[in-house]
Amino acid sequence: MGGGFAFTQYAGGTTQHKTRTGVYMLKSFHISNFRLFQNIEVEKLGRVNLVVGKNNAGKSAFIEAVVALC
């Protein structure tokens, strides 16, 4: 592991890394039966992630799912 990550934790369908500053950062997660998402696995998240799509594609629902995980 690089970038100063202290450990990896898997709980509730998420993979989190704790940085040297004590901040948790999502690396992957699973959404099941949330709004329009029936079953989606999101992997390889970085420090900065861009969510793009057409109108009514589910961008806001995706962000709400991420917020619900935190």
TrEMBL record:
* Matching InterPro entries: AAA_GajA/Old/RecF-like, P-loop_NTPase
Q: State the species of origin.
A: Dulcicalothrix desertica PCC 7102
Start and end residues of each Endonuclease GajA/Old nuclease/RecF-like AAA domain: 25-65
User: Mind telling me which Pfam families this protein's record contains?
Assistant: AAA_15
Quote the protein name from its UniProt record. Endonuclease GajA/Old nuclease/RecF-like AAA domain-containing protein
Traced from the root, the source organism's taxonomic lineage reads: Bacteria, Bacillati, Cyanobacteriota, Cyanophyceae, Nostocales
